[in-house]
Design goal:
Blueprint lengths: L2 H12 L7 H8 L3 H16 L3 E6 L3 E6 L2 H11 L13 H14 L6 H7 L4 H17 L3 E5 L3 E5 L2 H11 L17 H4 L3 H16 L7 H19 L8 H8 L3 H13 L9 H13 L9 H4 L1 H22 L9 H17 L20 H14 L9 H17 L7 E7 L3 H14 L4 E6 L15 E5 L18 E3 L8 H8 L17 E3 L8 H12 L3 H17 L3 E2 L2 E7 L7 E13 L2 E11 L4 H16 L4 H6 L1 H13 L3
Parallel strand pairs: 5-6, 5-7, 7-8, 9-12, 11-13
Antiparallel strand pairs: 1-2, 3-4, 10-11, 12-13
Helix pairs in contact: 1-3, 2-3, 5-7, 5-8, 8-11, 10-11, 10-13, 12-14, 13-14, 16-17, 16-18, 17-19, 18-19, 22-23, 24-26
Length: 663
């Protein structure tokens, strides 16, 4: 029986609608589409021998029809097609890496590469990349991956690091998901009944809620899984052994008695949770490292020494940001205190050696990684801090720092020029006045005055003195034509009878004009669109940028090294664009070069539709906010990239206007 043919059948059995293309099958299994097509005769024979028939539909892909249910059920039972766990289906690269990591971390004796390849239905060459990534994951937790002849691969390292790595790769950390116990090595460490797991989690959360400590949501899920792994490991004699400095340090904080309370509460209902001092200390450390960002909590109350370090580091980071950007971030409301909270958490994690571990974060935790300017600012901060503390960065820390900058810029307000409006009503000027009062009360800072008048009087208005007209003459239907004459100023219908639901529409179409957002964007001459551009590799495009924008050989080399390092550390791909930022404070305005591609091209492992290079300085907070919003929009609105290529000024203004509108 062909392993590859069997895996194709497994993939088809578990695919949505039981249909997949040859390319989809190739990506799942780790071979070429050509290999899949060559394997299909064997798949067809295997299905025919076991009560089914292979079906191939043009533009849809492969599937199979069951002709003899009893024969196929026997085949399914023997080959475990329908019982193959999700992690064994190679649904994507991440699933493979998780499975391989779990096997390497869990085994006590070692596992051979050939075994892992057979279990995943992979060739030795297809196994190479996910196995390398699994090795990197283990090493990110401070574990050493060793391989010995005759026994295979396993990890060596401290018990608490093994547990944290196993916690991360055990499965999706949602409380209603079941733990993945699909392989024999990890099953003993993850073993726990569904109801028991829920009860343990609820007991832990009850104790946590009654304490002054709060964790982010995804952290509580990880702690709940860790509690199960810790119990199972201790039962078989695998105890945590911490340095005395760690134990003494955590014992002097509120986290040690909190960890004691958690274990005590769980042990009242379940066996195996009567833990020794070292185990309690590490749970306390874990809680300390998983703190959320909370300005109501004073770092000095948790650990005065580390809080003092965080305060000094915050001062240095603020000075560095001022030097790099020319803007004083410390002047923004809450900027210093919020950064101190983030750096306090970082210092705690670094002290206990728990920084840098790979995390499988939720999409909502990583959404700020699609904000190019925030990623750039986060990179500036983290690169600088690493010259002081040799800590390790993971995606979550980068996303958290991006969120910090996004929040600061979200509070920045564009200048406002209050609008001068006119209002009409079919029953007269006094009703026009009454109709506008609700709008004025809701948006007072956007409206300078509203002058009521009759419809026919609008003919005498000088358009240069009018920012818009609120038309109270119209049908009840919102999409009905606006009555009256042809006007040279914005007109919007506002009917009191609609109970105020017009206010949001009037705000979106008319009142946003009060914000002076257009003035914050680069001037028209600073946009440049380069069509019919071809690149071959990211490195080649970076070399091109350095050659074009460097004013001498030294500057070209410096720019080349800067952009290569940035692409290496933080991916410059955002959605369907690859975007590079270069801070050049010799320029007063940002310049944007846009390279639309005729068709999607490969950038590393994903395809892009355009390349973007942004250079120049940013002199005000409002301009920084505008540029940040503009760059976010390249990732947020991929279907409008061609609009930007055709008319960058108008599209940029539309994107900023949209950011000000109500949903």
């Amino acid at each position: 029986m062909s392993n590859r043919a069997l895996q194709i059948i497994i993939q088809l059995s578990n695919a949505p609608d039981h249909t997949m293309t040859s390319q989809e099958l190739a990506e799942r299994i780790g071979v070429s589409a050509h290999t899949i097509k060559n394997e299909m005769p064997m798949v067809a024979r295997m299905l025919e021998e076991n009560g089914a028939r292979l079906v191939s539909r043009r533009h849809k892909g492969y599937s199979f029809d069951i002709l003899d249910g009893e024969t196929f059920d026997t085949f399914s039972a023997v080959t475990s097609i329908r019982q193959t766990p999700g992690s064994m289906l190679n649904a994507d690269r991440e699933s493979r890496v998780r499975y391989l990591s779990r096997r390497i971390i869990s085994t006590e004796t070692g596992i051979k590469k050939e075994q892992m390849a057979d279990q995943l239905f992979l060739s030795a060459s297809a196994l190479r990349e996910p196995l390398s990534m699994a090795t990197h994951l283990c090493e990110s937790f401070g574990l050493r991956v060793v391989s010995r002849p005759g026994t295979g691969m396993r990890v060596e390292g401290e018990e608490h690091r093994r547990r944290l790595a196993l916690t991360e790769v055990s499965g999706v950390h949602f409380h209603k998901e079941t733990l993945d116990c699909s392989d024999p090595d990890s099953a003993p460490w993850l073993s726990c009944g569904y109801e028991e797991r829920q009860d343990i989690r609820h007991i832990f959360l009850k104790v946590l809620r009654e304490s002054p400590v709060s964790l982010r949501d995804s952290a509580t899920q990880r702690v709940a899984v860790y509690l199960i792994i810790a119990r199972n490991r201790v039962r078989t004699g695998h105890f945590v052994q911490l340095p005395d400095a760690y134990v003494d340090s955590i014992a002097d904080t509120m986290f040690y008695p909190l960890a004691q309370s958690i274990y005590r509460a769980i042990s009242e209902q379940f066996e195996g949770y009567d833990m020794p001092r070292q185990e309690i200390a590490f749970l306390g450390i874990l809680l300390f490292c998983f703190l959320d960002v909370n300005l109501d909590r004073v770092p000095e109350s948790l650990h005065p020494g580390m809080a003092a370090q965080a305060r000094r580091l915050t001062d240095r980071v603020m000075e560095h940001l001022l030097k790099e950007t020319g803007l004083d971030f410390a002047a923004l409301p809450g900027a210093r205190d919020l950064l101190q909270q983030i750096l306090f958490n970082l210092i705690v994690q670094h002290f206990y050696g728990l920084d840098g571990g790979t995390q499988y974060d939720y999409a909502y935790e990583l959404q700020f990684l699609n904000c190019p300017l925030c990623v750039e600012l986060a990179g500036v901060v983290l690169d600088y801090i690493r010259t002081i503390y040799p800590f390790r960065v993971n995606r979550f820390l980068l996303a958290l720092t991006c969120c910090y900058f996004f929040g600061l810029l979200a509070r920045v307000k564009y200048p406002i020029r209050p609008l001068h409006l006119y209002s009409t009503h079919f029953l007269g000027a006094e009703f026009a006045r009454q109709q506008a009062e609700g709008l004025i009360a809701r948006y007072p800072e956007l409206i300078a005055e509203v002058t009521p008048m009759n419809l026919y009087e609008l003919r005498r208005i000088d358009p240069s003195t009018c920012d818009g007209v609120l038309m109270g003459n119209g049908a009840e239907r919102e999409d009905a034509p606006k009555p009256g004459y042809r006007y040279e100023y914005p007109v919007e219908v506002l009917l009191l009878i609609r109970g105020g639901r017009d206010y949001g529409r009037v705000y979106n179409t008319l009142l946003v004009n009060a914000y002076q957002y257009r003035q914050q964007l680069p001037p028209a001459e600073n946009y440049k669109v380069i069509r019919n551009f071809q690149y071959y590799t990211p490195e080649q495009f970076i070399q091109y940028l350095a050659g074009v924008h460097g004013r001498d050989e030294a500057e070209r080399q410096a720019l080349l090294e800067e952009l290569l390092e940035r692409e290496k550390c933080w991916s410059c791909q955002y959605g369907e664009v690859a975007l590079f930022l270069h801070n050049d404070q010799t320029l007063d305005e940002a310049k944007i070069e846009f390279y639309p591609l005729e068709k999607r091209a490969l950038w590393r492992e994903r395809k892009v539709r355009a390349l973007i290079y942004v250079s120049g300085g940013i002199r005000t907070w409002q301009k920084m906010k505008a540029i940040s919003t503009l760059l976010d929009s390249f990732a947020r609105y991929p279907d409008e990239l061609e609009d930007f290529a055709d008319d960058p000024v108008a599209t940029a203004e539309r994107w900023l206007r949209r950011s000000l509108q109500l949903l």
